[in-house]
Amino acid sequence: MNNNVSQTLGSEDLELINKYARKTLTADDVYTFSVVLCDNDADRDFEYFTRDTLVKLSQMYVGVTGIYDHDAKTENQVARIYACKVEDFPEKTTKYGEMYSRLTAKAYIPVCEASKELIDMLDSGIKKEVSVGCCIDKCECSICGTDMRRGNCTHQKGSVYGGEVCLGVLKDPTDAYEWSFTAVPAQKNAGVIKSFYQAYDDSVSREEYTKLKKYTEELEKRADEGERYKSYLRLEVVKSGITAQIGIEAKLLESMVKGLNIDELLKLKKCFDKKTCELLPVRPQTYKAEISSIRQTNEGFSI
Ligand SMILES: [Zn+2]
What we know:
Elements (H helix, E strand, L loop, with lengths): L4 E2 L4 H8 L11 E10 L7 E3 L1 H10 L4 E4 L10 E15 L5 E12 L5 H9 L5 E12 L18 E2 L2 E2 L2 E14 L10 E4 L1 H4 L5 H38 L6 H8 L4 H18 L5 H13 L6
Parallel strand pairs: 3-10, 4-10, 7-11
Antiparallel strand pairs: 1-2, 2-6, 4-5, 5-6, 7-10, 8-9
Helix pairs in contact: 5-6, 5-7
């Protein structure tokens, strides 16, 4: 996004900046730049902030320090936001058909030896990507309006229902705790690392939450892989059944295998393949012994 636009410093800006300084800073003491934190368009997780959420975040982000790569160690806190606002673009529409708005912040860095490298990078436009970390209390389903993390919504984000893509609508921010220069932003236009740990349980620390989130994501990924393998296997079983000429039409077979687990599907496929071996007489040499043994042991096999 069009981040890190260096700007001329007015007295108003200096006044705001000096709220955070221990000694009075002059225009020569600070380097300032604009940064787009996030917008209200749908991101790659099929979620979006409402404009109202952006407005609330704009108040929360004032005074928050920026860090490198979401590492909250003090030495990495390099820039501080001293002003933040929602910019509207009436001529531009979001993917879900509303006016495009974005959250833009003004930030400053004290000019010193330690910050020289970052300032050079910002000047040259290298450090362009920014992501934000905030807590959002509610993720509402765009189809049924249920809170997707608490309610009984059965819709899947990214799936289409009656011509409408299901999106998670992010509402009620409770904390804006960081923004950082990072290489891989989550939001398409700016990058949002969304964090929901407060929504679940206040007794869970941020570290524990991050760990749990990572673990859950890994499990979800594995479950997803398993589901995809099962779909593939079902298709293979149906194909095997047809090739084995078991006399059941594909549609019926498809619904018959729907409820089977991976083990059952594998067993069934093995049965069908054996039957196919019996049917097909032309086979390479190595198959012959196997086929004859199947004939002996598997006489009368039927489904
Ligand atoms: Zn729903």
